[in-house]
Amino acid sequence: MFEKDWTKMFYKKLQDNNLKIAIVGLGYVGLPLALAFAKKYEVYGFDVDKNKIGMLNKAQSYIVDVSSEDLIKFLHKSFYPSADDNILDKADAIFITVPTPVHVDGSPNMDYVISASQTVAKHLKSGKLVVLESTVYPGATREVVIPILETSGLKAGTNFGVVFSPERVTPGNKEYSVEKMPKVVGGMDNESTELAYILYSSVLEAPVIKVSNCKTAEAVKVLENTFRFINISLVNELAMVFENMGIDIWEVIKGASSKPIGFMPHYPGPGIGGHCIPVDPLFLLYKIRRYDLDSNFIEMARKINTIMPLHMVNLVEYGLRKFGKELRDSNVLVAGVAYKPEVNDSRESPAFDIIEELEYSGAKVQFYDPYIDRIYIKGKEFQGLKSIGIKELMHYDAIVLATNHKALVTQLKELLPKLEKSVVVVDGRNSLDTREIRKKHTYLCIGKPRGEI
């Protein structure tokens, strides 16, 4: 099965259960992956953030999907976190799980991947397998990562193997944890792919799917999220159109979903946030343009999603007219700033753009999120409310639901009907449409007929 010397060495350690693993980057991807491997292997976790390492060594988790109880099971038994990159010397398989954001112009920011690859190269020895999980554009593993690793003096494919396996972490989703999410692996050669397949299969409950090479595996990830990006953009555009046509898009989607084949429901919202969906299509677009080609779909979808936060603000302004108020000097509460429910992650959250646009229009803005106490928008700090009650809500002229955390929605459904005054309620998630709220307040929702104000 394995002919090269390095692959024989690696496979023997796998068979003898003597393999040691290192994870470079202990964020929302790396930490759950480290604990999944720690169930069977000795795992060394490296991160440059000393605060994170300090918390981990005290069994304090900073990731929603990893509890402190989970950490205690493996900490200093089979999982060893450190800010010293020399621990990479001990590992046979090294996984790179660092962030891959984009620059302001939408081009990929590969700084973290480059830095992590340089760190790994310092500790690379014959017989090791390097797996990149960070999302990149198709071709990046061969064009960026492998040349850096080869500065070690070793030759990829001859002395060590390289694989790309896209992370598919869905924060807050307990049904599909790391162990239960199907995994795709594509190596620089067949032997690298096979070793990664065996290694992942030894700890995952879900199937591991082999593809022909790194570039194909890289394309798998960007296709997945470009598909979602474009389809969410479609329903966002139709939501705005249907509002003016007097049609409820939520009812339309429900009706269309009754067709058992050929339709996959996607839902409108105040914009697309998070670490993947709004970013990954830009990686693909970057690579497409390097071939002197373009993608009208991605460009159009990007434009539509860029205007959704502004549309939310327009709904606030529209509702305030009922009270003869202008947006300027109105008090507005943005409820929820995480990019999705039940997480404390605000990366690329559309709530940021909503707050920025409200402030630009002269509104006085505050936010409340049960998971997040402060945010920074272009360097400016916003301190969130510690709690909300009748007294707090009485201060506002408009309340904007940007993120539908379950507890937050429950609170608002309970509190809003009890307010002694009427306010504008702008619902970006179709979560507050109750008879009691409509009766008491001016209720507006993305994708629902506005009615007469």
TrEMBL record:
Biological processes per GO annotation: polysaccharide biosynthetic process
Keywords (A to Z) from UniProt: NAD, Oxidoreductase
Pfam families referenced in this protein's UniProt entry, alphabetically: UDPG_MGDP_dh, UDPG_MGDP_dh_C, UDPG_MGDP_dh_N
GO molecular function: NAD binding; oxidoreductase activity, acting on the CH-CH group of donors, NAD or NADP as acceptor; UDP-N-acetyl-D-mannosamine dehydrogenase activity
Segments traversing the membrane: none
InterPro entries: 6-PGluconate_DH-like_C_sf, NAD(P)-bd_dom_sf, UDP-Glc/GDP-Man, UDP-Glc/GDP-Man_DH_C, UDP-Glc/GDP-Man_DH_C_sf, UDP-Glc/GDP-Man_DH_dimer, UDP-Glc/GDP-Man_DH_N, UDP_ManNAc/GlcNAc_DH
Catalytic activity: UDP-N-acetyl-alpha-D-mannosamine + 2 NAD(+) + H2O = UDP-N-acetyl-alpha-D-mannosaminouronate + 2 NADH + 3 H(+)
Residue stretches making up the UDP-glucose/GDP-mannose dehydrogenase C-terminal domain: 333-434
The enzyme's E.C. designation: 1.1.1.336
Origin: domain of life: Archaea
Family: Belongs to the UDP-glucose/GDP-mannose dehydrogenase family.
Protein name per the record: UDP-N-acetyl-D-mannosamine dehydrogenase
UniProt source species: Aciduliprofundum boonei (strain DSM 19572 / T469)
